[in-house]
UniProtKB/TrEMBL annotation:
This is Carbohydrate-binding domain-containing protein. InterPro entries: Carb-bd_dom_fam9. Residues 1-19 form the signal peptide. The lineage of its organism: Eukaryota, Sar, Alveolata, Dinophyceae, Suessiales. Keywords: Signal. It comes from the Eukaryota. Residues 55-171 form the Carbohydrate-binding domain. Pfam families: CBM9_1.
Length: 385
């Protein structure tokens, strides 16, 4: 993984204070973006239209503008989001600046990121397993899936795309809507677009499915990621229509034949299926704008555990697939964005051979009442002492 040496440029959530948690193993420099979502009784799935001027959205703040997924280059188009919730749904709104609104896919369960799209990733129990992904385009065409674990750990997609009869889905009761402004700009180069919006009602019961998480209440923390895929377009001189002409703007090699990937909280590499790097969603009550962002006390232990995970896999790649039970063996394999915390209390058990496996418990000094346990398949849990 490419080392990341520019972490200090990131900003924390507005009004957030970390001074009491700035030790060497706090991982405060890579603390993710965080959003306080207020409960509401004014939204319902049946009333979603993509119109973000309704009171329920006007009265809450936008997220920080999205950034490039892996570089410091500022995206040339603005993207931002908002969140609300009720007892049954997590509501997400997004606004995407777009002078060339374009979509081609109309069939449900298409691979939506082949178009310009908006994506939501939710890990309700923050274990990195059984997280959910939702994608939509400006036609309001959708694709959703559940991952038993990340692709890099041998995970697989559970969806109606791969199993039309028995695959996992959130529809129904999921509802969503897209709106393009001006409407006539969609797929018409003769009319310049301003933006397109997404409005989504994600059912809470499906988001917690298989995770062991409870339905949220004020004070609950979840992990959530947002991604916008943007393809460079050109106008076909013969047809007068848009066509895809990949040439990324903020990627590691600008102008390369790839899409742009813009996210709320940076991933440090072009990979969304790294749930430990997603943003933090903090649920709050109905009293809008009365709750401050609260420090996610599990962050240091989670980060220290992920440092063990990355170092172990780097070690194994050099040692025939075998892991080590010695922290000292891992120090040469420490890497950004999760460098090893050498001050942490660490206990590692290893089983090597045909099916090598490790499990490590980590308790860093910054918030020692929280111990994280990480497995070789990235399954991550935290216990309070």
């Amino acid at each position: 993984m490419r080392a990341v040496r520019w972490l200090l440029w990131l900003s924390l959530a507005d009004g957030f204070v970390l001074t009491q948690h700035e030790g060497a193993c706090s991982y405060s420099e890579i603390y993710p973006q965080q959003y306080v979502a207020y409960k509401t009784s004014e939204l319902s799935p049946e009333k979603l239209t993509g119109d973000l001027t309704k009171k329920a959205w006007r009265e809450v703040a936008w997220t920080q503008d999205f950034v490039d997924i892996s570089t410091r280059t500022r995206p040339w188009l603005r993207t931002r989001a908002k969140m609300r919730w009720d007892d049954s749904f997590l509501y997400v709104a997004a606004e995407m600046e777009e002078p060339q609104p374009w979509a081609t896919l109309r069939e449900h369960d298409s691979i939506i990121y082949h178009d310009n799209d908006f994506e939501v990733f939710v890990d309700a129990n923050a274990t990195t397993h059984f997280y959910k992904e939702f994608e939509m385009n400006a036609f309001n065409t959708t694709w959703m899936l559940m991952m038993n674990k990340p692709y890099g750990d041998g995970g697989f997609e559970n969806s109606t795309r791969v199993d039309p009869k028995g695959g996992w889905t959130m529809e129904p009761p999921l509802r969503c809507a897209a709106q393009v402004l001006p409407e006539e700009a969609l797929n018409h180069p003769s009319t310049k677009g301003r933006h397109w919006t997404a409005e989504v009602a994600l059912p809470l019961a499906e988001l917690v499915q298989e995770t062991g998480a409870q339905l949220p209440k004020p004070g609950t923390f979840w992990r959530i990621g947002f991604s916008r895929v943007e393809w460079h377009l050109k106008v076909n001189s013969s047809t007068g229509a848009y066509e895809k002409s990949p040439s990324c703007q903020s990627c590691p090699t600008p102008g390369g034949p790839h899409e742009d990937n813009w996210v709320w909280s940076p991933q440090y590499e072009i990979a969304m299926h790294l749930p430990e790097r997603w943003g933090i969603l903090q649920f709050a009550d109905l009293n809008v704008n009365a709750t401050k962002s609260a420090y996610y006390l599990e962050w240091p232990s989670r980060s220290a555990a992920m440092a063990i995970y990355y170092a172990q896999h780097a070690y194994a790649s050099k040692h025939g697939g075998n892991f080590t039970a010695k922290l000292g063996d891992l120090l040469p394999f420490s890497s950004d964005p999760f460098p090893l915390c050498s001050e942490a209390e660490v206990n590692i058990t290893v089983s090597n051979g045909k099916s090598a496996f490790f499990e490590a418990s980590v308790r860093p000094p910054d918030v020692p009442q929280y111990t994280a346990t990480i497995r070789s398949d990235r399954f991550l849990t935290v216990a309070r002492q």
